[in-house]
Amino acid sequence: MILNEKEQAMLDGKYGEVVAEALDYLVQFGEAFGAEKLVDISYCHYPAEMAIYDGNVEDAVKYSSRGGKVVVPTTCSTLCSDLEKPEITGIPVQLAHLQAEVETAHRNMGIIETYTCTPQFLGFIPPFGSYNALVESSAIIYYNSVLGARTNRGGLFTRFAAITGKTPLMGYLLDENRKGTHYFKVNISQQRMDSYDAYSSLGMHIGAIVGSEVPVIDGIKPAKQEYLLALGAALATSGSVTLFHIPGVTPEARTVEEAFQGSQPKQSYELTESDLDAVYAKQTNIPVGTTIDFVTLGCPHYNLEQIRWVANKLEGRKIAEGVRFWVCTNRMTRRQAEYSGYVATIEEAGAKVIADTCPVESHMRISTCREFGLKIPNVEAMVCESGKMIRYVGDLIGCKTGLRNKEQCIEIAISGRFE
């Protein structure tokens, strides 16, 4: 790999041991994938380091004690605990205390304590075409596809990218790897597609087909930002999609031809309502009439408008006894929702607004419940509007699942029965 003068100085230790070590890891990583050089990054979304993983928090604390500092704006992904209000999720006290230790470590490194899967909702919008280093699959695909800010799936190497401000020039940072590979023509009515769960289902269907390649999705015009978020999160869940194009919507695909960079698709598909119906059927294994004990909205994390909508729908109503209802968001949005009175309205109904975490990242995982002597499965039957959430909680929490739209989720939470 060719290094410039500053990069060589970093590698030689002139910027300190932590920087030299970080750059060495990035060089090895890049060389393993044939990268010819490093590039400067504009922004980093950092792995949260969660207490549900043995040694994860301890490693973060130890690393921060070595004096490393991030050199680009760096936000942080979700935790297993709501750090401000750990008691509202029922997390074991010991686990909550351990998770809290990571906040000081991150602050010492200069990492912004966002603890969210949707940093774009907080104003972290790097320039179009810029190079970045991100974790969290739903954020990665959104930044690549909707913003045109280039990133690979960073994993642990985002730590080293944040410390050095560098990343190898490879993968989705390169023009040739950003062209479409598969063409999907969506022949579904706009009315059917005007919901979060519909876009989530569409993403689950397409992701399972393309795996890690780049779908070009024609025939849809998402009316809301969260629809694009739902689509990307699902694509990255059922497959490992890192980039998608919607002609006339996403910035690198003004036309179908531009999305494919002049090439022909490997395969073409036509999608109909029956394809969405199949996803709902696959992700729903709760018999009608079954008692529900968990409803969740906010995967990925809800924005302020979505929380306002929930508050309006719950005003003057009550969640059924025995139902836990979480609305998940980031801590900054919850503060504004508190100021606006939305949190109070939601809490009066018996639901909770959760920050920093979500069910799939929480103590409710089977492995963590086993470690702390909690009920397994911690949840019997969960309903939500997110294909991503359903895919993971079914495996990690072990509960039955039901995919429904947000209006249905509200009504199920109030009745306590699956419809």
Quick recap of the structure?
The protein is an alpha/beta fold and 419 residues long.
List the helices and strands and how they pair.
Blueprint: H1 5-11, H2 17-32, E1 38-40, E2 44-46, H3 56-65, E3 74-76, H4 93-109, E4 133-134, H5 137-147, H6 157-164, E5 166-168, E6 182-186, H7 190-193, H8 196-210, E7 215-218, H9 225-238, H10 256-259, E8 267-271, H11 273-283, E9 294-302, H12 304-314, E10 324-329, H13 331-339, H14 342-348, E11 352-355, H15 366-372, E12 381-384, H16 387-396, E13 400-403, H17 406-415
Helix pairs in contact: 1-2, 2-6, 3-4, 5-9, 8-9, 8-11, 12-14
Structural notes for this entry:
The protein is of the alpha/beta class. It has helices at residues 5-11, 17-32, 56-65, 93-109, 137-147, 157-164, 190-193, 196-210, 225-238, 256-259, 273-283, 304-314, 331-339, 342-348, 366-372, 387-396, 406-415; strands at 38-40, 44-46, 74-76, 133-134, 166-168, 182-186, 215-218, 267-271, 294-302, 324-329, 352-355, 381-384, 400-403. It folds into three domains: 5-174, Aconitase, domain 3 (2-Layer Sandwich); 179-281, no CATH class; 284-415, Aconitase, domain 3, CATH 3.30.499.10. It has 17 helices and 13 strands. Strand 12 (381-384), helix 16 (387-396) and strand 13 (400-403) form a beta-alpha-beta unit. Helix 3 runs parallel beside helix 4, helix 8 (196-210) runs parallel beside helix 9 and helix 8 (196-210) crosses helix 11. The longest helix has 17 residues, at 93-109. The N and C termini lie far apart (59 Å). The mean pLDDT is 97.
